[in-house]
Amino acid sequence: SIQRGFQVNFEETNWDDIGGLDMVKKKLKQAVEWPLKYRNTFKKLGLRPPRGILLYGPPGCSKTTLVKVIASVSGATFLSINGAQLYSPYVGDSEKIIRSIFQRARASSPSVLFLDEIDAIVGKRSLGERGGTGNGDSVQERVLSMLLNEMDGVETATSILIMGATNRPDMLDAALLRPGRFDRLIYVPPPDFKSRKQVLKIHTSNMPLNEDVDLDFIAKQTEMYTGADIKNLCRESAMIALREMKTTSNVNMSDFLKALKIVKASLTADILTYY
Ligand code: ATP
User: Fold this and answer.
1) Which residues, by range, are in coiled-coil regions (predicted)?
2) Best mean pLDDT range from 5-14, 67-76, 124-133
């Protein structure tokens, strides 16, 4: 992706690029598309579209991809920032960056402003992780105040949707979750059997598959795999097929079985206790 001052151009994506997650997709469509489509009805009913939507759940389960799809299908400008960019010693004043990214979001609205790994941008204030004492003097604490200010300052009339993603919702400062800030929280779960089969279909759609490949079986064998793990599994299977230079140039079931021994599930029962 080309990045020009936090504005990101990315490949067009759509809902079908994400396997499973039907409920999540439905909730997002309601929260994002409905307020735009039925603007007048919303006004008449006194409904306020959400200011911020927070996606939370284990890593690798398509939170980032969902945000890109929203920006893609709504035709909005997509601005994105994460903790590493914000606190990079090369970019300087973190508070200024927050201010300027909101300025850009306003100037280029309708826009989606994505705060990726938001726990790394603004963790719990009391932790004073970046050398602070919890008295509002650390960089992270000042960034949090700036962010809250900017979020509160977004006029309801302007089409700026703020989206956040986190693997650790428990690490977020509660102030972020007050009404008018991140007022919709959506859990993005790991894929169940049916979803895993869809993810397998998506990531093998451009592969010549031998007819012995049994996606049902693979979906059953991949409990605790994330979508990202399944994507890796498919790539690994193709690499195995390539390495073995078989005369038939397609990927067969034995390639997948070998790949299953190499690409393991990244989820554990421990990780899932966070959600
Ligand atoms: P992280 O928290 O690590 O950033 P994430 O939840 O934002 O993870 P993504 O970056 O969106 O996850 O997904 C990682 C990769 O896995 C993407 O390239 C995506 O194509 C693939 N992937 C994950 N879930 C799915 C899914 N349900 N369907 C299709 N592809 C998926």
Assistant:
1) none
2) 67-76
Of the candidates 75, 250, 49, 80, the residue with the CA atom closest to the CA atom of residue 165: 80
Report, as an integer, the average pLDDT of 20-37: 86
Q: Which of 217, 188, 204, 147 lies closest to 275, judged by CA?
A: 188
ipTM of the complex: 0.95
Measured CA distances, 205 to 21, 73, 89, 234 (Å)? 19, 22, 42, 10
Q: Ligand 1: distance of its center to the CA of 59 in Å?
A: 8
Q: Which atom of ligand 1 is nearest to the CA of 195?
A: 27
pLDDT greater at residue 152 or residue 50: 152
CA distance 112 to 105: 7
At residue 61, φ and ψ (nearest 5 deg) are -110, 25
Substitution site in 202, 231, 274 for ligand 1 pocket (most atoms within 8 Å of beta carbon): 231
Q: Give the contacts of 76 (CB within 8 A, at least 6 positions apart).
A: 70, 109, 110, 111, 112, 159, 161
Ligand 1 centre distance from Cα of residue 195 (Å): 13
Distance (angstroms) between ligand 1 centre and the Cα of 18 equals 8
**Confidence class of residue 41 from pLDDT cuts 50, 70 and 90?**
confident
* Residue of the CA atom closest to atom 18 of ligand 1: 228
